[in-house]
Design goal:
By secondary structure, this protein is of the alpha/beta class. It has helices spanning 2-7, 28-45, 68-71, 90-97, 123-133, 151-159, 179-188, 202-222, and strands at residues 11-13, 50-57, 76-80, 104-105, 136-140, 164-167.
Length: 223
């Protein structure tokens, strides 16, 4: 832990939320408990090192698998599709981009551990919407789970102005070292440092979150 503490400015803990497909996910009461534990750890460390993340399923109707009151408590909210393989999930990903609580699309092209299964997605539409709404797209850095967003689409995303986030999907401390695999994937997609959101300070990330809120607010006024 000491190596992680000195190597990173912040660390986001984002366990998946319980669904019918994610049996080991956290239930709302467990999330509240975890957030309390994070507060205690940060108090001990003397700074806000660990951020409260939420990894939330996008349900079939496009809504998220947590109430708004709990989503508002998260420092960083990612959204993912659970199950429903071999279906077109384009509209669900677009709805997530339009959700004011979602900062990032997580595992956008496959679920960890089931990389042989995938969905039908119109990536041009999804990436265009992500860029337009200030929603970033995750690269999964796990070496054995590299069935995520392909390099051509990563390149298209940054050309459209979308931001990329590299996540280790770590379950154990040693897996934080997988970040180098994600960096390599980003480089193959022609990403520069400024294209990767989590190369920035947390203050800058908070500003980017506010940018999304501003974009969606203006969009609603135009309707």
């Amino acid at each position: 832990m000491s190596k992680i503490y000195t190597h990173y400015d912040y660390l986001v803990i984002a366990d998946p939320v319980f669904t019918g497909q994610i049996k080991g996910g956290l239930r709302p009461e467990e999330i509240v408990e975890q957030f309390g534990e994070i507060d205690l750890v940060n108090k001990t460390l003397g700074r806000q090192f660990i951020k409260k993340g939420l990894n939330v399923p996008i349900l079939q109707d496009g809504s998220l698998g947590l109430p708004a009151g709990l989503l508002q408590q998260g420092d960083w909210v990612t959204a993912f599709i659970a199950g429903d393989f071999n279906k077109d999930i384009t509209s669900r990903l677009i709805w997530a981009c339009e959700n004011p609580y979602v900062q990032c699309l997580n595992h956008p092209d496959s679920r960890p551990g089931v990389q042989k299964q995938s969905w039908t997605v119109n990536w041009k539409k999804v990436i265009d919407k992500a860029a337009a709404t200030g929603t970033c797209i995750a690269i999964n850095a796990q070496p054995d789970q590299q069935a995520g967003l392909k390099e051509d689409w990563i390149k298209y995303a940054i050309e459209r102005g979308a931001k990329i986030c590299i996540g280790t999907n770590a379950s154990y401390l040693y897996q934080f070292d997988f970040i180098s695999t994600g960096v390599a994937a980003a480089r193959r997609g022609w990403c520069r440092k400024e294209d990767i959101l989590n190369t920035r300070s947390w203050k800058e990330i908070e500003s980017y979150k506010q940018y999304k809120q501003s974009v969606l607010s203006h969009h609603m006024k135009d309707l």
